[in-house]
Amino acid sequence: MNADLPELVRVAHERAEAAGFDYSCDPDVGRLLAVLAARVPDDGRILEMGTGLGVGVGWLVSGLWPRTDVTVTTIESDPERAGLAAQG
Question: I want to staple 51 with a disulfide (CB 3.0 to 4.6 A). Which of 21, 22, 66, 74 is the partner?
């Protein structure tokens, strides 16, 4: 994966690749997520449904950086995937 990706995204993608998870967020879609996250109003909230292994939420959080006023909640129904995503 590209070295020019945000660190959170790169690490999550490596984790997904090692686990054989093929449904991670495409970089073009991820960049859109980052732009949308950057426009969340002050003290806003983001909900991601279907964490997978954390690539999408990596993009969202990267778009928010360095803000700390936005709450990001992500859920995953598969316990194994949730555990791997939590490593990030």
Answer: 74
**Cα–Cα distance measured from residue 70 to residue 37, given in angstroms and rounded to the nearest whole number:** 9
CB atoms within 10 A of CB 30: 23
Q: Is CATH 3.40.50.1110 the classification given to domain 7-86?
A: no
Contact predicate 88/8, CB 8 Å: yes
pLDDT score, position 78: 96
Contact by Cβ (8 Å): 51, 79: no
| Domain positions in the chain | 7-86
- 3-state SS, residue 49: strand
